[in-house]
Amino acid sequence: MAAGERVAVVGASGAGKSTLLGVLNGSVPPTAGSVRVLGQDPAALRGRELRRLRARTGTVHQHLELAGQLRVVHNVNAGRLGSWSAARAAWSLVRPQGTGDVLGALARVGLADRAYERTDRLSGGQRQRVALARLLVQRPELVLADEPASALDPALADQALGLLGELATGRGGALLACLHDPALALRHCDRVVGLAAGRVVLDAPARALTVAALEGFYGVSR
Amino acid sequence: MTAVVERPAPPAPRLDRDRRRWAWGLGALALLGWALASSGLLSGPVLNPAGTGQVGRFLAAAVRPELGAEFLRVVAGSTLVTVAYAVLGAGLAVLIGALGAVPASRTTWGRRRTGWLLTRGGLALPRGLHEAVWGLLLVNVLGLDPWVGVLAIAVPYGAITAKVFADLLDEAPRGAYRALLAAGAGRGTAALYGLLPPAAGGLLSYSFYRLECAVRSAVVLGLIGAGGLGYQLALSFTSLRWAQVWTTVYALALLCLLADVAGRAVRRRAAAPRPGPRRDPVLTGAVLAVVALAGWAVWYLALSPAALVSDRTREQVVWVASAAWPPATDGDLLPAVWWASVETLRMSVLAVAFATAGAVALAGLAARPGRPVRPGRAALGGLTRTGLLLLRAVPPPVWALVLLFVLLPGALPGAVALGVYTLGVLGRLVGEAVEEADRRPAEALRAAGASPATRWLYGGAPALAGPVLALALYRWEVVVRDTVLVGLLGAGGIGVLLSAATSSFDWPAVTTVLIAIVLLTVAVDLVGAQARAALR
Q1: ipTM value
Q2: Number of domains forming the structure of chain B
Q3: Domain residue limits at B153
Q4: Chain B partners of A93 at a C-beta cutoff of 8 Å?
Q5: The CA-based dihedral angle spanning residues B362, B364, B367, B369, taken in that order and rounded to the nearest 10 degrees
Q6: Which residues of B touch A (CB under 8 A)?
Q7: Which stretch of DSSP H or E encloses residue A200?
Q8: What is the per-residue pLDDT across A178-195, written as a single tens digit (0 to 9) for each?
Q9: Distance from CA of B408 to the nearest CA of A (A)
Q10: B109 lies in a domain?
Q11: Domains of chain A with CATH codes
Q12: Chain B residues lying within 8 Å of A66, measured CB to CB
C-alpha cells in the first residue's frame, strides 16, 4: 500500500478480512511470512517500541471495543492512551482531560451533545460514531477499519467513510477498510482487494470495477 | 410563505456528576476510615506475645496430625453426624421454602400487597438470626436433642429459601403462564404448567446451593455444642491437643471442599440442563442420593418426632416465652447493646474491605486465562485458586480460634477471621467475573498502543467495578450475620453479649439482644440494597 491510498477489502464472511487487519495491527501473529507496517515489523517489536507503533495504527472494530459503562468522553479519550501516562489516564476518569479535542471530534461525527452520557445508553449507530471519534483523537497514520459502516444508515455511512479517508490521507497515511457494501467501496476507495479463503483473488483499481462485478464476487444474490 | 425560526445554539454539554454515587462512595470511605482508626490496628500492640510459644507448637502439629485408628474412628463418626445434620437441615429447609414460597410470591397475591408484605415481614425474623443463634435458643428449649442441629439449620434456611423460591417464581418468564390463564386454567394449575417448568432449573440449583451451605453451618453448629466435627474441634481445642485439632481441621476442610466442588458441579448442570429428551443421569442421581441420605440421617441421628411434641418441650417453650417478654431495658444493658452493635458493624466493615481489596488484587491471578499462558503463570494461577479454596473451606469461627493465638483478644481477631474467609469466597466470585468479562475493549486498546495499566483502567475496570462492588455489598450482609457468630465464641461484637445472656439464662436480656441483632441485620440489608441500586 502506498501513502495516501484508500483500499477496500472485500470478501465473503470467513475469507480472512478481520485476520488481515489483526495481523496489521499486531494483535494476531502471522503464522507464516512477515508484514511491514509503517516501515516496521510488528512481530519483531516488544514493549514500548511495539506500543509506539500501535499508537500510529488506528483500528475501528464494529463498535464492540467501547466500554459501555464509561461516559462517551472517556471512550473517545481512550484513543490517546498510547501517549498518556497511567497517572494522567487515571486522573482523566475523574476530571476529563483534553475535552476541546474530544468535543471537536464528536462534533465532526454529529454527537457533540452526547459527550457526557454513558456509552451504553447510545444506539448502535451512535456507538459506531463514538468509535470513529476515538480514532479522530488518536490521529493514526494507518487507519484499519472493520465494517465501519455496518450499523449506520446510508447517509451516515457515506459521511463516516469520508471522514476515515480524510483522516488517513490528510496526514499522508493510508486507509484499509473491510466493507460489505460494494457501492461504498467503489465510492470511497481507490483500490479494491478481494479475499477468498485467505488468498488474494482480486486486486484492481476502483475505477475499473462496477458494483455489479463486485456483487458477483460476494457470491450472494442481494 | 416561509417562516424563519431562530434556533438558539445548543448549549455546550456539561459533565453532570452522579451525586448519589459520589455520596455513597464518600460515605463508604468515611465508614472504612472510622473502622480502621478505631480498630486499634494503627495504635498500640495487636500481637499477643504470650501466644507465640503456643503458636509454634500449634503450627508444628500441622505436619503431624493425630492419625491413631481410634481417633480417626471418632473423626469419621463426627463427620457422619455433621453430614446428617446438613442433609436433614437443608432438606427440611427446602420443604419449608417450597411451602412458604406460595404466600411469599407476588404472583399469589396479584395486586393485593398486604398479605405479601406480611409474609415477607414474617420471614425477616427467622432470616435475621444466624443458625448458631437459633441453635443456642433451641438448646434451651429442646435440651440436647438432635432436633436442635436440624432445626437450627432448617428454620433460618427455610425462611431464606422461601424468599428466594418466591423471587425465582416471580422472575420466571410469564408468557406460558399468561397463555394458560387466558385459556381458562385456574391459577394453581396455570402456575404448575406455565410457571414451575421455566423456574425448575433455578429452584433445583438453589436447593443444592443450600445443601452446600448447610455443610458449613453444621460444622459451625458443632462448635456451640450440637455434636459433629465442630464439637470435636472445640473439645480438642480446649484440651490443647494440637495434633487432634489439625486432624479435625483437615477433615472439616475436606468435607467443605467436597461440598463446594460437588455442589458447584451439580448446580451448573441444574441451571443449564442439557438438550434432549432424556433426564440428566448425574442430576437424577444427585437428587436420589440426597433423598436416600436424608432417610439414613433420620435413622443415624435417632430423630423422633415425639421429642418435638412432648409435654416437656411444651412446658419449656411456654416458660421461656413468658420469661423472655418484656425485653430488658434496665441500667447498663442498652448502652452495652449499642456499643456492641457498633463494634459488630466495625468488624464487618473491616472484614469486607480487607476481603474486597485482596480479591481485587488477586483477581488477575485467580481468573482462568482465556488464552494459553506460560507454565509459570499457569502454576501461579492454580496455586492462587487452591489457596482461595482452602481459605473458604475453613469456616470463620475456626479461623477466629486459630487467630486468637496470634492476636490479642478483641474485635481484631474476629474481623481478620471473617476477612480471611470472605477473601476465599470473594476471590472466587471476582475471578469468575473477570473470566466472564468482555475482553474486546481491552484488546482494542492494546491494538491502539495503550500500556497495561491504562488498558486495565479504560478497558477492564469499567465493566468490572459495578459487579465487584455489588458482590462486596452482598457479602457485607452475610458478614454481619457471621460477625454475630464469631462473637458467640468470644471474638467481640454483639455475639458476646448474646452468649453471656443465654449462659446466665437472663431471658429478658436475650430478647433485647436478639431484637438488636435483627434490627442491625435489617438495617445493613437496607443500606446494602440502596447502595446496590445506586450502582445500577
Answers
A1: 0.76
A2: 2
A3: 63-323
A4: 457-458
A5: -150
A6: 10, 12-16, 438, 440-441, 443-451, 453-455, 457-459, 462-463, 465-466
A7: strand A199-205
A8: 887 778 888 888 888 888
A9: 40
A10: yes
A11: 1-56+140-222 (3.40.50.300), 66-137 (no CATH)
A12: 441
